[in-house]
Write a structure and sequence with these properties.
Length: about 200
C-alpha cells in the first residue's frame, strides 16, 4: 500500500486542485500530517503550490506511476477484485451516470429540459433509485474495500452527500462546487482505477 507521503500525492490525482484540508477530507489523514508532506513535495518538484492550494506536476504523476505496481500488486492480482471492477463498470457506474442525467434534466413534451427541482415527487423518485444504487455499490466494491479502507471512506462520503440531497440540498447530487454524489463518485472511480491499473472507460 501507499505510505502517508505517497497517499498525499495520490490524492491530488483524485482532485486536481486542493488545499491540505480538502486532501485530508478525501483520504482521512490528519491535516497536520498532510501539510508537511505537501511542502516536501513542492520542494521535490512533485507538486505546485498557489494561494494555499496544490496541484500535482508531471513529475509527481511519474513518481506515482513508479510506485503503484508494487504498492497495489496484491490488489491487481486478485481475481475477486477484477470481477468486482467488471461489475462496477458495467453496472453501478453506468447507473449513476444515467441517474445524474435524470436528476439534471426532465422531459417536457419529449425534450430534455433542465430540472428546476420544482417537482418534489420526481426528485424523490430519482433519489430513491440513487440510494439503492449506492447501497449496491458497497456490495460490488466489497473486495476492494476489504483490501483498501479508502474505498469504504468514499462510499461513506457518497452516503453523506445523498443524505444532504434528501434533506433538500439539491446541489449534493451533481453540483461541482460541493462534495456531491457526482464529485465524490468521480474521485472514487479514479481511485479504484489507479488501484487496479485500469483505464477510465470511454
Amino acid at each position: 500500500m501507499l505510505d502517508p507521503d505517497q497517499l498525499t500525492l495520490h490524492t491530488l490525482t483524485l482532485r486536481q486542485l486542493a488545499t491540505a484540508a480538502q486532501i485530508s477530507e478525501i483520504n482521512g489523514q490528519a491535516e497536520d500530517a498532510v501539510a508537511p508532506a505537501l511542502d516536501q513535495a513542492v520542494t521535490d518538484g512533485l507538486v505546485l503550490s498557489a494561494r494555499g492550494a496544490y496541484m500535482i506536476t508531471p513529475a509527481g504523476r511519474a513518481r506515482l506511476d513508479e510506485v503503484y505496481p508494487a504498492a497495489f500488486a496484491e490488489i491487481r492480482a486478485s481475481s475477486d477484485v477484477a470481477a468486482a471492477m467488471d461489475s462496477f463498470e458495467s453496472g453501478v457506474n453506468r447507473q449513476v451516470l444515467e441517474l445524474t442525467t435524470e436528476w439534471q434534466t426532465v422531459q417536457v413534451d419529449g425534450t430534455p429540459t433542465p430540472n428546476d427541482h420544482g417537482d418534489p415527487e420526481y426528485d424523490a423518485r430519482v433519489l430513491d433509485r440513487l440510494g439503492r444504487v449506492l447501497e449496491k455499490t458497497r456490495k460490488v466494491l466489497g473486495p476492494l474495500a476489504a483490501a483498501d479502507p479508502l474505498v469504504e471512506r468514499f462510499t461513506d462520503r457518497l452516503d453523506a452527500a445523498l443524505t444532504r440531497a434528501e434533506g433538500g440540498e439539491t446541489d449534493y447530487v451533481s453540483g461541482v462546487r460541493v462534495d456531491s454524489v457526482h464529485t465524490v463518485w468521480f474521485q472514487m472511480h479514479e481511485h479504484v482505477l489507479r488501484l487496479t491499473g485500469r483505464e477510465r472507460p470511454e
